[in-house]
Write a structure and sequence with these properties.
By secondary structure, this protein is of the alpha+beta class. The chain is 32% helix and 21% strand. It has helices spanning 13-19, 65-86, 128-135, 141-154; strands at residues 30-31, 35-39, 49-53, 90-99, 102-113. Strand 1 and strand 2 (35-39) form a beta hairpin. The longest helix has 22 residues, at 65-86.
Length: 161
């Protein structure tokens, strides 16, 4: 069990971030009864959020009814926050659920897309995240922390323990 009282897997990076076993730059932005909102730790750009279930879930169809209901509104709110802070042209939301071709803790990537990205990542939207991982540009920690502080001030979710 993690500090939120949910099932976890010590082998799971997402669970270790949620439990505080791994350092989460910027800290947790928000949590609901069943979900967590954090800044992405990978090279997908400042302002990219992760929305993940508190418990270790590896398939969307394995979500409880309560988790599934809560998910939609939280994804919408995370996209609003990303858009409001970054003033991006679009917010992509994608499901990630594999690590080395094995099912892993599901998480939604909520990513701001700027038109200027086309000048750096030329292959287009369908491969943008792959290109960003290949480029592996580290995120400036101060910018991530500032984004998270701003996001915590404006996100509209009821605070949960």
């Amino acid at each position: 069990m993690n500090s939120a009282g949910s099932e976890t897997s010590t082998a799971c990076y997402a669970c270790r971030l949620a439990s505080g076993e791994e350092t989460l730059v910027g800290g947790r932005i928000a949590q609901t009864r069943h979900w967590l909102v954090e800044h992405c730790m990978g090279p997908l750009g400042v302002g990219t959020l992760i929305v993940k279930p508190k418990r270790h879930v590896v398939h969307v169809h394995a979500l409880s009814d309560e988790e599934a209901v809560e998910m939609g509104g939280l994804l919408k709110e995370a996209a609003r926050v990303v858009n409001e802070i970054t003033r991006c042209s679009q917010v992509y939301i994608s499901l990630w659920s594999h690590a080395d071709w094995k099912p892993s803790h599901i998480h939604y990537v909520v990513q701001p897309i700027q038109l200027a990205m086309k000048d750096v990542y030329s292959a287009g939207a369908a491969t943008l995240q792959s290109e960003m991982f290949r480029a592996n540009q580290p995120l400036p920690k101060a910018a991530v922390v500032a984004f998270c502080e701003h996001a915590r001030r404006i996100i509209r979710v009821a605070a949960q323990p």
